[in-house]
Design a protein that fits this description.
Elements lengths: L14 H22 L2 E5 L5 H11 L2 E3 L7 H4 L5 E5 L8 H13 L4 E4 L7 H11 L5 E5 H9 L19 H11 L2 E5 L3 E4 L4 E4 L12 H15 L4 H22 L3 H14 L2 H7 L2 E3 L1
Parallel strand pairs: 1-2, 1-3, 3-4, 4-5, 5-6
Antiparallel strand pairs: 6-7, 7-8, 8-9
Helix pairs in contact: 1-8, 1-9, 1-11, 2-8, 2-10, 6-7, 8-9, 9-10
């Protein structure tokens, strides 16, 4: 579940003016998470559980790695958001994923889908498409994953969790998928693109070394769930804010890191210690 982002830290055209609106909004979302400590249920893969839980904790949220069908009817209504990740998928996990999505919808709780390697196999694609039928609030994937969901077909060039397409290659597919599903769709890559089928928002934060650390993509999806939990009426804004804040934490962490292992640790420390001045000065968001 390595992150698929290849980032540059240079501001892009139009970013500076957009930041007058977006940077304070991103900070406000993080403050809300810290003050409300939303309970986020994560049904995720074995590879990402530790990093995902620690990312949520460092942001101020409360993670719960509960996936049993015996617990979901009682537990999911207590949450403020749900994150469902298709990473280490087996048939035994699908009923719990579907039930959690169903209960979240019934309780009007937002839930986020991470369609890991959606185009890798027929089994995985079918499962991801079935999850789309439950109308996730947000879908976050790399270019290959979003294109696979849009096309509804297995990709013969699939490299598993690694994208063979840039995020920009999937923008139009993301817009169409958002229009068809009613979900906000986020495409991770050199630039993160977030769309509701009409608007397209671009996040420019992050560092190239994220792609060498497993579960960073999974973890930012969980962070999206936490930001969405405290502002469910503004899914585009919450998603862009989560991606930008995570990216800023990675940039700060990179200043202290000696390699992927130390970046993993310093990213979590940086997210925990992020202050308002730093967030306002480093968030880079623009609109197409």
């Amino acid at each position: 579940m390595a992150e698929d982002k290849i980032k540059t830290s240079e501001p892009q055209k139009g970013v500076e003016s957009s930041n007058l609106q977006w940077a304070p909004q991103a900070w406000a979302h993080l403050e809300l998470v810290r003050s409300k400590s939303p309970l986020i249920q994560c049904i995720t893969n074995f590879v990402s559980m530790d990093f995902m839980a620690n990312t949520l904790l460092s942001a101020g949220a409360s993670p719960a790695m509960i996936h049993s069908v015996d617990e979901i009817p009682e537990f999911t209504p207590k949450t403020l958001g749900v994150c469902i990740n298709m990473g280490t998928l087996t048939p035994d996990w699908l009923p719990g994923m579907k039930l959690a999505a169903e209960v979240a919808n019934q309780c009007k709780k937002p839930w986020v889908l991470d369609p890991v390697a959606a185009g890798g196999t027929s089994f995985r694609l079918k499962a991801c498409l079935e999850m789309m039928n439950f109308r996730p609030s947000v879908v976050r994937g790399n270019g290959s994953e979003i294109l696979a969901l849009f096309k509804g077909s297995v990709d013969s060039n699939s490299k598993g969790v690694d994208s063979v397409y840039g995020s920009g290659d999937a923008v139009e597919a993301a817009k169409s998928l958002a229009q068809q599903s009613g979900s906000v769709v986020a495409v991770s890559g050199a630039v993160d693109y977030i769309t509701d089928g009409d608007r397209v928002v671009c996040v420019h934060n992050g560092v190239p070394m994220l792609q060498t650390i497993t579960a960073t993509g999974c973890s930012v999806t969980a962070l999206i769930a936490a930001f969405l939990a405290v502002d469910p009426s503004h899914a585009v804004e919450a998603t862009a804010s989560a991606l930008a804040i995570f990216g800023v934490a990675s940039e700060i962490g990179m200043d202290m890191a000696r390699g992927p292992a130390s970046l993993r640790t310093s990213l979590i420390d940086s997210l925990y210690g992020l202050d308002e001045a730093t967030a306002l000065g480093r968030v880079r968001i623009s609109c197409l």
